[in-house]
Amino acid sequence: MSKEMKVTIVAGDGIGPEVTREAVQILEAIGQWNGTRFQFVEMPIGGVAIRQHGSPLPASTLDAALDSDAVLLGAVGGNEFNLLPPDKRPEAGLLQLRQALGGFANLRPSVAYAPLSNNSPLRPEVTDGANILFVRELLGGLYFGEPRSWNRESGVALNTMRYTRDEVVRVARIAFELAQKRRRKVTSVDKANVLEVSQLWRATVTEVSADYPDVTLDHQYVDACAMHLMNTPRNFDVVLTENLFGDILSDEAAVITGSLGMLPSGTIGGKVNLYEPVHGSAPDIAGTGKANPLGAILTAAMLLRHSADMEQEAQAIETAVQRVLANGYRTADLARISQPDQQIVSTREMGKHVFEILNEIIDCNQAMHAV
Ligand code: IPM
Ligand code: MN
């Protein structure tokens, strides 16, 4: 029986549309394979939406997102908006969308892909085999805590890092459950030597861990964790963090992979799951064909895994990406002078290579099932 899937596409700003187009093409190939009828509904968000509708998240975009099986986002943000207050910026549209969709667990895998082992400034013997899954709490902490303000007269600005026990419990459960399917280790990140909110975090995570006796839990202060991630990335399996720490550490962990352009993410636990690559809108390279679409393509794989129960299809995409890298194709961010065999390709070409290898994998799979 063929399945229908309505996916709202909010490609957004900068390189968002370029990389999202390649991810959609990959989902279409999957639809051809397994009969899923994808309905893609394109809606504006971020700077594009401010220009067209005067709001970074128009009501029609939010309605479409809430009425879909999954949302795929490109990126938001642009230099022309840099002087606006936080609530008027393109980023506000993304934060409002996250809040409305309700997903509180943002999964950010960071994998040291073998063909890219010379891309990281870290030595291959440090990164080889590293495979970390960040579980970043996405709806609490400084991003959403009240009060918040900037009083220009008094020269005082204020944000609030706030968590409730329940908010920590629900994201911790996701981290432990995911760890059970991996190497059964959770590292919880906090700053419990200074912050009350981190003491609540640590106590709550410890309490939740009692329900998962097969998973090892350790706690690290965020500053130490930032260092250990670079020194011994293989020691990490699942890393559980609050919102801002997760934002910072996941960009840092891009160093393990070799480029921020490689990192996908998916946010689960709410009404509708939201999928977005970790990289931003990169206005400096928008429209030049230099953007790396692999983060967006791997994000599409996460969408299939977490919103469509299509593990086999998700893995086929991940395998295709690895083979394309093994074949030497590199977007500008992945190019290295030390690698003479590499072939530098554009965003579109990279997407096409993944598409072709994916179709080979699909053909091979169908041939196997035919005998
Ligand atoms: C990310 C981004 C966003 C965040 C911005 C664009 C609001 O940096 O997804 O990591 O801070 O969460
Ligand atoms: Mn970020």
Features:
371 residues; alpha/beta; Isopropylmalate Dehydrogenase; 2 domains; two-stranded antiparallel ribbon; 12 helices; 14 strands; binds 3-isopropylmalic acid; binds manganese (II) ion
Task: Give start-end ranges of low-pLDDT stretches.
Answer: none
Q: Which structural class is indicated by helix and strand composition?
A: alpha/beta
- What does the main sheet amount to? 10 strands, mixed
Share of helical residues: 40-55%
Q: What secondary-structure arrangement, pairings included, does this model have?
A:
Layout: E1 4-12, H1 16-34, E2 37-42, H2 46-53, H3 59-66, E3 70-75, H4 90-101, E4 105-111, H5 124-127, E5 131-137, E6 149-151, E7 156-158, H6 165-180, E8 185-190, H7 196-209, E9 216-221, H8 222-231, E10 238-241, H9 243-257, E11 266-268, E12 273-275, H10 294-307, H11 311-326, E13 329-330, E14 343-344, H12 347-370
Parallel strand pairs: 1-2, 1-3, 3-12, 5-10, 8-9, 8-10, 13-14
Antiparallel strand pairs: 4-5, 4-11, 6-7, 11-12
Helix pairs in contact: 1-10, 1-12, 2-4, 6-7, 8-9, 10-11, 11-12
